[in-house]
Design a protein that fits this description.
Chain lengths: ~400, ~325
């Protein structure tokens, strides 16, 4: 193991290197670009023996790795925002063909207006495509989760594509120390992909095809069942990873100071770190507050959310996107998971940090004030106004 | 006794779902005779999606991957990358797409595949409209042709625009090999497919593929109509290897275009004046091909086509 100070984007690239990916497709988009740049360096200087495909669009980027994966190659690509939206059609193909493609996504706002700031709307808009979705809090978590994602995606019980996301700039372009496991450690954890007979040259067979309704519903149900096996597989894979590296990121919904909490805030991505500090401060003042980090959005960890709800009265959800439902997307999932819960906690949604707006400690403090107040609203947009100009700035 | 040059092996199986007289079905049959059983096909939404028959059956004796309509070029780049990464021996990677999936919605992925010099064969089977969806005009539909979206009647005179010059677009990318193929000339067809297989680098085959229901003719006339297409100069047969164009069916004179147009209901509305305009168009296209054949390089209206030979260094694969 070595410790390297690196960005979240480099963590993606190092993970792909350690996973010994065989086919990479690259198309630039801010703020993803440095991921594929670093991979181009690894390939050029001989550290990574991969086919590096320079494609002409994100649609082709995903298509080329899907097709490569169908023949048994371990593949990697990465994108952001508009690029992910362009891939939407092929995202469905990836899950339907059951190819274990792993992709890095740097969460960035969707145009118009143009914005390169952090926002989860790009990946939230892909929640219905049959992909496993991980949201990372730190650069370390990015690296570890990409490696775990390959194991899960390639597991015979799963065979689904996975995306590992990181917040634009907060992770993608911010450096922090990352423990990089040795090649030996990763090779033992993640051996070469066992090539299964999906598409074999010389063997007459068809992958994709078309069907009548009876077969079609069966294929969709198969994907749904595979999705149900993701969280048990994640538990086993994380345990193995922890045994080898000493790091465990705590499953799909790790919690912080929730044991005796009355009110818990559920976060995704980098807002978690800020929220943790706010919770420590509020605890000092006597508030019984806690935190739950939604690390896996697909499959949605319904059981973990129900277990959390059994001991708390109020759940705040921080949605770093708004996709024009009645509330933010995470809040809708939480509400759906808790409809049959008894007792059923109150759920209050906070939309914050979209388009790269900072989620400050003050903003999270306000969320808790609303959440602990007499009538927590169903939905609150935090920080609609521009911040007050400070004296020094 | 005549020596047959066409392999007897059939890789299109009985029971496929094509219409009687289907040009694309013949095209696939001849193509795979030239390419062999180690072919991996990637195919977008097109007539052949249906012809190949539904899950769990397949009408093809080769491995087949379906892909979305616009991404065939990218798909074969990915397949080739995997074949190379996994060192799978003796694989011919082929994209097989219709004219809409190639010249319209798939043009970007085709251009990308040619530009990054993917070692694969891209086949466009050209039935000159969106036939699988029921005869809507494509960029490859010829001028004057009736389709359901270029109706005839009132002001409608069939497709007002000219056919997109896909070979011109492809040749501007300087592929190692490009050719036009017509199932009505099976020896030439299979020879070109087999030749393409033995060359490494980006290759493109433009396949003429008559469609009885779409072109409005009786299904037993496919071969005859195909022969007329070439012999009237509508679909000349040639190949371009390393930037050198060579006619593979030389004609002392062109048959009048009326012999071709008159056999198809899609052209039945054309006036003598409209036919004369199409005849002039075909003649000038044929004369251009003759000039290029004589000079040995594709010229055409774009100077880039005459000044660029194919990139050297694309090696010929050992047979």
């Amino acid at each position: 193991m070595t410790q390297i100070v690196m960005s979240g984007n480099s963590a993606q690239s190092y993970a792909a290197l350690l996973a010994r990916v065989q086919v990479i497709a690259a198309y630039p988009i801010t703020p993803q670009t440095t991921i594929v740049e670093k991979l181009a360096e690894f390939v050029a200087n001989g550290r990574l023996a991969a086919q590096y495909l320079q494609v002409e669009s994100e649609h082709s980027a995903l298509q080329s790795v899907v097709s490569a994966s169908a023949l048994g190659a371990r593949t990697y690509t990465a994108t952001s925002s508009q690029g992910l939206l362009l891939m939407h059609e092929v995202l469905h193909w990836a899950s339907g063909l059951r190819v274990p493609v792993v992709m890095g996504v740097v969460n960035r706002a969707v145009a118009p207006p143009w914005s390169i700031g952090a926002d989860h709307a790009d990946t939230i808009a892909q929640r219905d495509t049959g992909w496993i979705q991980f949201y990372a809090e730190s650069n370390q978590e990015v690296l570890d989760t990409v490696l775990e994602a390959y194991r899960i995606a390639e597991d015979p019980a799963v065979r689904l594509p996975a995306m590992v996301t990181e917040d634009a700039f907060y992770l993608s372009h911010t450096v922090e120390p990352v423990d990089v496991p040795s090649a030996e450690t990763v090779d033992a954890f993640l051996p070469a992909r066992e090539v299964r007979a999906i598409l074999v040259p010389g063997v007459p067979a068809r992958l994709g095809s078309f069907t009548g309704p009876i077969e079609y519903v069966g294929f969709r149900r198969d994907v749904a069942r595979a999705m149900e096996r993701v969280l048990p597989t994640l538990a086993a894979v994380e345990e193995d990873y922890a045994r080898r590296t000493g790091r465990d990121h705590g499953g799909p919904l790790p919690t912080y100071r929730t044991e005796d909490a009355d009110a818990v805030l559920l976060t995704m991505g980098t807002a978690t770190t800020t929220a943790r500090a706010v919770i420590d401060a509020l605890r000092e003042e006597g508030h019984r507050v806690g935190l739950a980090k939604l690390r896996v959005f697909r499959p949605f960890p319904v059981e973990a959310v129900r277990a959390l709800a059994a001991s708390v009265d109020r759940i705040g959800v921080l949605d770093r996107s708004f996709t024009f439902g009645p509330t933010g997307a995470a809040a809708m999932e939480v509400r759906s998971a808790l409809y049959d819960a008894s007792p059923r906690p109150l759920v209050s949604d906070f939309v914050a940090g979209i388009g790269g707006r900072d989620i400050t400690p003050e903003a999270i403090t306000r969320m808790f004030a609303l959440l602990e107040g007499p009538e927590p609203p169903e939905l609150t947009w935090i920080d609609l106004a521009a911040p007050e100009a400070s004296a020094d700035g | 006794m005549v020596k047959l040059t066409i392999p007897a092996t059939e890789l299109v199986r009985p029971g496929h779902a094509a219409c009687p007289g289907c040009g694309p079905a013949l095209a696939m049959r001849l193509l795979l005779k030239g390419l062999g059983p180690r072919t991996v096909l990637s195919m977008p939404a097109c007539c052949w999606t249906v012809i190949a028959t539904p899950y769990p059956t397949t009408a093809l004796g080769v491995a087949l991957l379906d892909n979305p309509i616009e991404s065939t070029g990218a798909s074969i780049s990915g397949i080739r990358a995997a074949v190379d990464a996994l060192a799978i021996p003796d694989v011919t990677v082929v994209g097989f797409a219709g004219d809409g999936g190639t010249a319209d919605i798939g043009l970007q992925a085709l251009s990308g595949m040619l530009e990054r010099r993917t070692n694969a064969i891209y086949v466009m089977y050209d039935n000159e409209a969106y036939m699988n969806t029921g005869i809507q005009r494509s960029g490859a539909t010829p001028e004057g042709a009736w389709t359901t979206t270029t109706p005839v009647g009132g002001a409608g005179r069939g497709k007002p625009e000219r056919k997109k010059d896909i070979m011109g677009i492809v040749l501007a990318h300087r592929p190692v090999y490009a050719a036009t193929l017509n199932p009505s000339f099976p020896e030439d067809f299979v020879r070109k497919a087999a030749k393409a297989r033995e060359i490494a680098g980006p290759r493109f085959l433009h396949v003429f593929a008559p469609c009885p229901p779409g072109w409005r003719y009786s299904s037993e006339e496919t071969i005859e109509i195909g022969r007329l297409a070439t012999d009237t100069g509508v679909f000349p047969l040639y190949e371009v290897a390393d930037g050198h164009l060579r006619l593979t069916r030389r004609l002392s004179s062109l048959k009048p275009i009326g012999e071709y147009l008159g056999r198809q209901g899609r052209y039945a509305h054309l006036t003598p004046e409209e036919r004369a305009r199409l005849q002039a168009e075909v003649r000038s296209g044929w004369e251009r091909i003759l000039r290029e054949d004589a000079s040995g390089s594709p010229g055409g209206p774009f100077s880039s086509r005459s000044s660029h030979a194919a990139t050297k260094g694309d090696t010929v694969e050992a047979a």
